[in-house]
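[Q] Does anyone have a clean structure-token version of this?
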Amino acid sequence: MARSSDARTVAKLAWEAAWERLGNALQPPPGYPEPSPEQLLECFRVAQERLDNLRQAHDIAPVGTQ
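[A] Here you go.
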């Protein structure tokens, strides 16, 4: 991923959206249905992917590889 300011901004926004989605899956707001195990797994997968993209946009090595 490019390391421009725009790429960092997009990566940050994508991470924030994934974090919010995961939070809603872990603790659904009133009126929201409980997620299925598959939906919860997908929320974790997407959140991890977006966090990895954010880390790469800031040129930070994966944890444990430094």
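[Q] Thanks! Anything notable?
[A] The chain has a mean pLDDT of 92.
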